Amino acid sequence: MKITVMTADEQIITLDVDPHETVENVKALLEVETRVLLQNQQLLYNGKEVRNFEKLSALGVKDDDLIMMVSNAASSASSNALSFNPDGSAANPGAFQQHIRNDSNLIAQLFQSDPELAQVILGNDLNRLQEVLRERHRQKSELRRQQEEENALLFADPFDVEAQKKIEAAIRQKGIDENWAAALEHNPEAFARVVMLYVDMEVNGVPLKAFVDSGAQSTIISKSCAERCGLLRLLDQRYKGIAHGVGQSEILGRIHVAPIKIGNIFYPCSFLVLDASNMEFLFGLDMLRKHQCSIDLKDNVLRVGGGEVSVPFLQEKDLPSRFLDEERFSKQASSSGAPVTSGTTDKSKNVSTGGQSSGSARPDTSQGPDFEAKVAKLVELGFGRDAVIQALKFFDGNEEQAAGFLFGG
Fold first, then answer.
1. Where are the domains of the chain?
2. What confidence tens digit (pLDDT) does each residue in 77-104 have?
3. Does the domain at residues 2-76 carry the CATH identifier 3.90.105.10?
4. Confidence label for 250 from pLDDT (cuts 50, 70 and 90)
5. The model scores a pTM over 0.90
6. I need a surface site. Which of 58, 257, 291, 358 has the fewest CB within 10 A?
7. Starting at the edge strand that comes first in sequence, how are the strands of the sheet with 2-7 ordered?
8. What residues are labeled active site?
9. What's the pLDDT score for residue 287?
10. 270, 276, 285, 287: which is closest to 222 by C-alpha?
């Protein structure tokens, strides 16, 4: 009788065999036709695998019946292509990637459980795929190691001090991990980088991006920025000193007044000039208070002059990468409560600053008849003497500014 054999690659072979022939002999004939070794052949009749010792007649095979042949060698090769190296990378990353891509259900599950791996599999970078697979292998190995250590601790001697310390540490770490997982689920924005507050300003007609820092007592400009803005000629070196923060920087002096433009309005501003190459311009609390500024984080704007001007805070994409270094430096210059010590002039003094602030070297205006006359005049207006002295010192003896501050308070 004649039987038809179809291979896995859809090759059709017709064999003339005896009805009482064994399956093993049929495979021998197919080995000649297909060059697939007998032991690597798997024959299926009506969807069921037939065994070598069985006869065709006993299986019910009749003339012109169809038998399927599957090569175990192909299955083995496919299995090897989907195997992994000891480091967790795929033995054949291209075959592994294609195998996952062909299974839409598996891709959907990956997007739920491991979106990074799913994205890499759908991409074209096989090197990146291998890196992710190695990382997943490392993570699984670490988790397995931790679980083995935890299991070992369960059977540790309860009177072993070292074992009890390890159990305590494991319990504490478990609490930390649970807290971290809860934060990822309910407060994921806490893991994002917080961009500091910057606005566009013009200083003496030169545009720049100003770092708004209410934690800094004084407004600061770098020497290079002051030179670029044409202000270095106004530097008063009598106000030299050292700014102490997390680190310290040299105060070269002070520029008493210069125009800054916020929005469409000009405002007078004074600066401390620091010898800082990686910090450009810091808009501190002195000018924020003077110009009645409000940091509105709900609308993400800086309001100036009691609200007459509103300028938006800049987004991260609008800031040069070097500004990240500038933020670190500004904190060194302005984030501790340490004092600023005076430098070369006898008229300067140490100024202790509270909270997060930067100090400023100021002349000592708390002596002399002129200062006492100003104190007396403001006391007559109904303010306490201590508050008056503090306000005059803060505004370098400027009676009008001190009065405005006291009335505003």
1. 2-76, 198-342, 369-408
2. 555 556 788 888 888 888 888 888 877 7
3. no
4. confident
5. no
6. 257
7. 12-16, 2-7, 66-71, 41-45, 48-49
8. 213
9. 93
10. 276
